[in-house]
Fold this protein.
Amino acid sequence: MRERSGGASQPGYRGDMGQRSISRDGAPSFGEQGGKLTYGGYLRLPELLSAQVPESQPPAHDELLFITIHQVYELWFQLILAELTDARDRMLAGETYLPRLRLERCLTVQGVLERQVDVIDTMTPQDFLEFRTKLAPASGFQSVQFREIEFLSGLKDPGFPARFRGLTGDERERLLRRLAEPSLWDGFLAVLRHAGFEVGSDSDRFTSYATIAGDRERYGPLWDLAEALIAHDQSWALWRARHVLMAERQIGTKTGTGGSAGGAYLRSRVELRFYPELWELRSRL
């Protein structure tokens, strides 16, 4: 610990916090006595608020809503990726507590993602049609971060980068890296190995799951972590299902702007699961 000189007790002394100062009455105060950082500067608000640029001319009123919603999705995706990556890394090291906390935070964020669809639903199909043609060939199908979340969660599609049109070099590299690196499922299996369970074969794993499920008093942290993974999986499936209904409410059976089958494509992905073995365990209990 750094030793402080006698000046540390004097009014106005600034220690390691940099922006903290001591007022004359001895109470801590914050503000201009510290650094020059401002709320807007810290959040980069000029750059953030200048990023909503509608394409339609004359401007369609609801295009700002559409852009804002999807930009907010990408900000949340960025946070989810940070949390899931940390959870994966900690599981690979054998941890259970903090990975569960990270997954629970993601679950709360994913609930926000689902509720954001309610905001999109305030837009009528007629209002969407005012600017929808300007979107082609852009599509939510092209969200790199969304695919990164799926790959990191365990739903890896090696052929996707080749089918993905319009990728930048950096985006392609990110997707390929996610395909090559361990997933959350790999992290969970590492936790089980660290706890002394066999996970080499299907039979070994289901025997291990049954042991954990049958003695939650002894293996509570492992069971809670498995449940956190299931909750993450379920929440993502609910968001997919909500997205299907939103798309069908807006465009019916029309083809998606990116050339996909629209609602039919989205519906085909509703049944996908990150952790099918944990779902199958329910049938074996």
